[in-house]
Amino acid sequence: MKWYKIEIKTETEAVDVLTYLLEESGIEGAVVEDPNDPMFDERYKGDWDYSEETARTFDHEDVVVRVFVEASEKIEEIVLNIKQMIGNIASNGLNTGSGVITYDIVDDSAWKDKWKEYFKPFKIGDRIVIKPSWEAYSPDLNDIVIEMDPGSAFGSGTHETTSMCVKLIEKVVKPEHTVYDIGCGTGILGLAAAKLGAKTVLGVDIAEEAVIATKENIEKNNLEAVMNVQLGSLTEEFNGKADIIVANIMADIIIGMNETIGDFISDDGYYIVSGIVNGRENDVLASLNAHGFKVIEHLHEGEWHGIMVTK
Q1: What confidence score (pLDDT) does residue 147 get?
Q2: Per-domain residue ranges for the chain?
Q3: CATH fold of 117-310, please?
């Protein structure tokens, strides 16, 4: 299917009105790149605990609003309509910047399946291998294969935070262990624990699409007897204590949980946390220490940290 990609150069104060008018005209899903947005300020760094610095830097100074419309639409009329929107915004005293509109045509077949070429079986930790369903793989003797396809929910296994959590789980999980996975995403950490021999695994996520993805991956790997997933926030779905709790989320949420998370960990259990970007590790460590946890291992990969503690 072919689309028109339309880019509009404007200024920050015009963005809200412009995106509203675009939506009212039937053009939804605007993407805004605003280098001047206060959210990119260091004071808001907690909101960016799941992003490398390169994800919040720009190669342009203008505010760019990007939208897509089907190529079957009359692009000249759409551009004229957007120009009128910009004119109306400017007439109401808002700075619309240059107002330059550019467009080109793109074919979604160029990217829709192209990414599959780059998602190959790969190993995380010492034994866990992530294999997409469309790829063949001959495992080595000690390999443990998890079959899963990347989806919209976070966690295909390629991120450093995921691999660090798997490495830490590998070191401590035992057949008699119960494992809780907070913010399970696609379920990859729970799946790894189950494949490594955990007795029972429960994943929890606040996002319905993550729960759906995890259920699909549980079934794909024939782990229904070991692993379950629930829609819920943090620890509200937990009933009793676990031998391992893993939370690959973000620093501020981890810090907020530390006061009560010990209530859900067995006396000789482990608490594994990641999603901690460079610069926040000391905040998390201080909080863990303040709530009676002892650091067993601290991993650092790329811009990220993974920490394992006991009570």
Answers
A1: 92
A2: 2-110, 117-310
A3: Rossmann fold (3.40.50)
